[in-house]
């Protein structure tokens, strides 16, 4: 990094227009050690570069100029890889090139649906290979469209959305940062013909949780215009994917996949590192979880045991399938983990307590060092965060983009017994994971379309 703060600040400011054009005009996402460089914040860029003092920011600027001048589009580029190569043009030439974006349909627009929309449409951010095309909801009231826009713009947990949201009543759409997003009203997925709305080969994300098996979600897949389906909940009879751990398991044959649960995404990356390094004999996962919309605000009838009691007044014992679901991403942990959950009166951010019996003895320092290194790796920087803050509390992690963040000062080790505490924003951190999976699937769809086009031309 350059010698003075003001020089570095000036250089970071000069990169904002380049990153903006790359995202806006070419759908290119630039990453540094797995972290996305955003065009909306000089402070954010400075924070990213502060983690890599070895970088020459003048060289970074030059590389960004080369990416912008190239034919590279609809893809992700790794900044450190480009800087390490003498021939940047050759590396860029090997990247996937321009083509049609995969349209995305959000089926359901609750907590996760709205955060997915925020993440996809964030100013200064790009989701290569895909664009939000439509939202499917049940009509709730006469001014439903305005209500949806307001809920997207204003959020009690995550604050006011830093973007423009307008209502287009005539075309029954929301205009998010200048892009029209069709709002389709339907009470059943079998009612919707997406091609009639100009949507083809789309990636549909089901945020309702109403259907969790292959047959139920196949109704989406059988509708005109839908190519793939992602479930934002644990799924049956399909692959449960934790991005960064087992996303390489997805093949073209997998037309329906699950993004697993927020808790599974929070703990699986850390467990994968520990399993690889030490081996895990057995363990228990206790998640202390923020209350959610499926609980009652005041005591009333509920189909689930205990969840009928007032969420804002009680700690509520309940069940979680997260521990079992880990083995779907890490098969070697099959049958080794148990789990339970306590819902508590906070509106967002949860913590998972991992009580593990490892196959070999270790120490607090060794585990913390191992997971800190993993949090800085390009492979897992989006999945594992690392906290050394002595005064950290749950609200500090609202808006965290990592799937889970290790509270390193709370790590306990006695021989081969380790207890780890993992914070996670069960709303936004999970939504970021879902978007990462969506990006991968969208780019796969795009590549497939290119190959089919090439074959057609060859014929």
UniProtKB/TrEMBL annotation:
Keyword Cell wall biogenesis/degradation appears in the UniProt entry: no
Enzyme class, first EC level, given as a word: oxidoreductase
Enzyme Commission number(s): 1.2.1.-
Coiled coil feature spans: none
Molecular function terms, GO-annotated: NAD binding; NADP binding; oxidoreductase activity, acting on the aldehyde or oxo group of donors, NAD or NADP as acceptor
Highest taxon, organism lineage: Bacteria
Stretches assigned to the Glyceraldehyde 3-phosphate dehydrogenase NAD(P) binding domain: 102-262
Any Gene Ontology biological process: glucose metabolic process
Keyword Oxidoreductase belongs to the record: yes
Keywords tagged on the record: Oxidoreductase
Record-stated family: Belongs to the glyceraldehyde-3-phosphate dehydrogenase family.
NCBIfam families per UniProt: GAPDH-I, PRK08289.1
Name of the protein in its database record: Glyceraldehyde-3-phosphate dehydrogenase
């Amino acid at each position: 990094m350059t010698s003075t703060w003001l020089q570095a600040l000036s250089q970071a400011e000069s990169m904002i227009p380049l990153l903006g054009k790359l995202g806006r005009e070419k759908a290119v996402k630039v990453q540094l050690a797995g972290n996305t460089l955003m065009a909306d914040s000089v402070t954010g860029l400075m924070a990213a570069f502060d983690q890599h003092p070895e970088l020459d920011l003048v060289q970074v600027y030059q590389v960004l100029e080369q990416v912008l001048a190239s034919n590279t589009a609809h893809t992700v580029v790794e900044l450190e890889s480009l800087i390490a190569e003498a021939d940047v043009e050759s590396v860029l030439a090997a990247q996937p090139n321009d083509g049609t974006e995969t349209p995305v349909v959000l089926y359901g627009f609750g907590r996760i649906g709205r955060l997915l929309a925020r993440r996809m449409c964030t100013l200064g951010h790009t989701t290569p290979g895909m664009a939000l095309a439509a939202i499917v909801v049940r009509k709730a009231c006469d001014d439903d469209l305005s209500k949806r826009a307001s809920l997207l713009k204003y959020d009690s947990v995550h604050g006011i959305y830093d973007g423009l949201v307008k209502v287009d009543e005539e075309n029954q759409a929301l205009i998010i940062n200048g892009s029209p997003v069709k709002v389709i009203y339907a009470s059943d997925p079998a009612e919707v013909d997406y091609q009639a709305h100009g949507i083809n080969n789309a990636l549909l994300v089901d945020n309702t949780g109403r259907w969790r098996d292959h047959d139920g979600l196949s109704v989406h897949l059988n509708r005109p215009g839908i190519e793939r389906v992602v479930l934002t909940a644990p799924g049956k009879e399909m692959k449960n994917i934790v991005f960064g751990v087992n996303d390489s398991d997805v093949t073209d044959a997998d037309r329906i996949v699950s993004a697993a649960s927020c808790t599974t995404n929070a703990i699986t990356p850390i467990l994968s590192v520990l399993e690889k390094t030490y081996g895990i004999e057995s363990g228990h996962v206790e998640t202390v979880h923020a209350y959610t919309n499926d609980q009652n605000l005041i005591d009333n009838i509920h189909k689930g045991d205990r969840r009928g009691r007032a969420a804002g007044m009680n700690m509520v014992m309940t069940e979680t399938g997260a521990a079992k679901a880990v083995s779907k991403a890490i098969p070697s942990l099959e049958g080794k983990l148990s789990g339970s959950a306590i819902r508590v009166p906070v509106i967002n951010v949860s913590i998972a307590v991992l009580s593990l019996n490892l196959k070999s003895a270790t120490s607090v320092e060794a585990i913390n060092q191992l997971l800190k290194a993993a949090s800085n790796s390009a492979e897992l920087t989006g999945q594992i965060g690392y906290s050394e803050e002595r005064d950290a509390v749950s609200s500090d992690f609202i808006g965290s983009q990592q799937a889970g963040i290790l509270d390193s000062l709370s790590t306990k080790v006695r021989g081969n017994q380790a207890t780890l505490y993992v914070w996670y924003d069960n709303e936004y951190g999970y939504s970021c994971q879902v978007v990462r999976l969506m990006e991968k699937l969208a780019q796969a769809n795009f590549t497939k379309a290119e190959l089919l086009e090439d074959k057609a031309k060859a014929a």
